[in-house]
Amino acid sequence: TLPQYQFLPKTDLLNLNVNWNRALGTPVDLAFFMTNVTNKKYPVAVSGSYVTAGYEALFFGPPRMWGLRTRYTFGT
Q: Does pTM surpass 0.90?
């Protein structure tokens, strides 16, 4: 049989980023981010081993991830 995963499907992901610059009038910037909000399972690469080894492998993108960022501005 021919390789199944010769072409990767189109993928739509939802990512969020919320920034609050100079929070409460201070020199502190805050940010919240989240990638792959819907926790979608999606392929990002295919191994090229079908011709030589007779099998294929899919590599998937990272799951949902979130975090906080803080930045302090020194001086003016």
A: no
